[in-house]
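Morning. Coffee machine broken again, so started the prediction first thing and wrote up yesterday's gels while waiting. Chain of 250 residues, entered below exactly as on the submission form.
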Amino acid sequence: MGGQMVDEVIARLEALAADSGGRVELAPPVSGEEISSWTMRVPDDFRALLERTSGFTVGGHPHVFDFNLPDNHEPVVNEYWPLQDESASWILHSDGSATTYYVDVDPESGAWGRVFSFWEEPYARMVAPDVLTWVDNVVTGTRLALETAQQGTDLRRAFSEWLYGAEGSLSRHPSDVVEPMPVVKARTSDDALVAEIASGLPDDAFLADLRTAGYPTEVPFARVVPAGEVVTYTRFHNGSFLAAALVPDL
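Came back before lunch.
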């Protein structure tokens, strides 16, 4: 993420709200002092965005994009989010169809990487290479939805149709799919990195190799995870691999 890009995204977002006739509303900014007090260190570019606005609303609920969800500041991530731990992700948005978007954060270096989403069933998607690309994509879609709504379509409907169906949306149902591998099989891979990652995962886990995948790409863990089982997600090598491990019965 570059400084020029974040300035452009902020400018586009503010212009969008100004042109919307009140139908796109920006959330209040977060002070630099508050951001500095957080346990999670956010990148300078994302910090610049938060200091101008912490999100925006498109036509009211359910399209509320909150870049500063309370769960990001809890000692333990709410169990609803099947993420490894609070130091390895930043939750960006949860929409009305039970889809949650988050950015992969390297727990050791703190580097922010790819944006993923997951559903309440074990379907996961890799949706963008970084936060600003994802935000910019949503801004583009909102602008297009506003143009459609001016022709008589409800803004929320127009935005939903773009978000989930338009070819240019990173949140659309993807045509690209990476099938997850059983970890037991992945451990015997000729690819040394795949075998290494698999060696540290439980026997009943599944691993997806996303190194060459595009955006968006779906990882349908639900096809291989036994029905009714709950999983937790773990990312490796800056989001190049995604694993789903079964949560033991408590």
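Residues 131-149 form the longest helix (19 residues). Going to sketch it on the whiteboard this afternoon.
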